[in-house]
Amino acid sequence: MNSLTLLYIGTHRKYPSRLRHYLKSITVVSNESEALRSLSSNSYDAILIDDSIPLDEALEIIKRIKMVKKSIITVLISINPPQSHLIKAIRLGINDVLIPPLDPDVLKETFNKLHFMVLTSRQLIKKNLLLNQYKNALDSSLYISKTNPQGIITYVNERFSHLSGYTVNEIIGQTHRLFKHPNSTREQMAELWNTISSKKVWHGTITNQTKTGEPFYTDTFVIPILNERNEIEEYMDMRIDVTELANHLRNLQSKIDEATKEIRAQQERLISQSRSVALGEMFDNIAHQWRQPIGAINNAIINAEFAMELGGMSTDEILETFQKINSYTAFLSGTIDDFRNFSNPDKAKTWFTLHETIQQTIGILQDSFDSNTISICYGPNSEEQLLKIYGPQGELSQVILNILSNARDALKENAIQNAHVSISLHQKDTEITITIADNGGGIPDSALPKIFDPYFSTKNKSQGTGIGLYMSKTIIEKNYTGKLEARNAEEGAIFTITLPAELDR
Q: pTM of the entire structure?
């Protein structure tokens, strides 16, 4: 209680001496002019006017003082004040009227009450000061508006007004549909309204439109403000302008789309280039495979002509010659079918049997493996022979052919004795694996982490482009959502193709 400061107005000397016990400090003046001078240079918690000053004059003094400092606590000492004067005192906001004689208990109670009022007033002033600073901070950094429970805008700050292009007067009384952009969705607005109506905070990015039709984007919080009955009193809308960021993201997305398109085009070119390399090798393999049956057909015809010149051929000999020629042409037709399946550029996805695809690919390379004394071991069981996959068949053939060709070249280059390649086909749960292993000594440890990089090759530049394994991995991942992996074993390299099994076909 002894923290109060008091301005005492009056000529009685007995009262100030009694009051000092309850105060931090007391300043005594005798009239209004002295009081106003003291108020202009000092701060007081309360003013007390004693009964030496007529009541009418005292009320006028308080009236003028309140015009200078409205919140100051005021107390009167008056003997039997008339009711009319008490009513006027109440209207002026006088806090208390003391009636002599001033009993010590009464004084103590009065100044206890005044002390509480001063502390409360100080706290309110402090809170109002902080609230004003908070408001200024928010107003200077955020775009703020408020609406009543029906969504009618009741307040908007200058920043929001400037951002939207509307004046404050044009906004007040409207709803936020005033800023609705054609691209904003009903679903988002419905979600917003449902959220805040249930007394929850909504947060999201809203596409808005200025008065001139320009879009602007805001990261927005809409906060329900509740009253003492837990009812929605109003909604506060606080926003951050993210237009520049949104435009930047849109430009970035456009660049990403362009880059993605270019990457896809580059991949298509690489696939085409890789296919051309593989097709060139296939032509060599087909040429190797065709030499023997074409030579045999030629020999059969020459032998038939020679026999006819010597005296003719029996019916059995003619039939035997035809059968040989027929078997040779059937072989040639088979290699053409294998080539057609491999070289077909149509990427349409179909169901196909993995076993037949592997067999066809082995058939394409068989002659070049035989000529280099390399054996291929492949023997799936009856269940594995039935395994099917969905995708572009020709591209999987290209992957298998590329891996087998690399194995052949490694075995040949390293002059491996008893050179062989083994192929296995297996299904476990929802995955099908094709494993291709050789005994060619393996991939150098320094090269193993990089073998799937574009244009990386362990071969001489005249022997390879370095795009085969890169594109093989791309095909498996992109067109089959699978995996292509490589590792070294004791004898050589192992490549594993993992494909998702379609169990519900």
A: 0.43
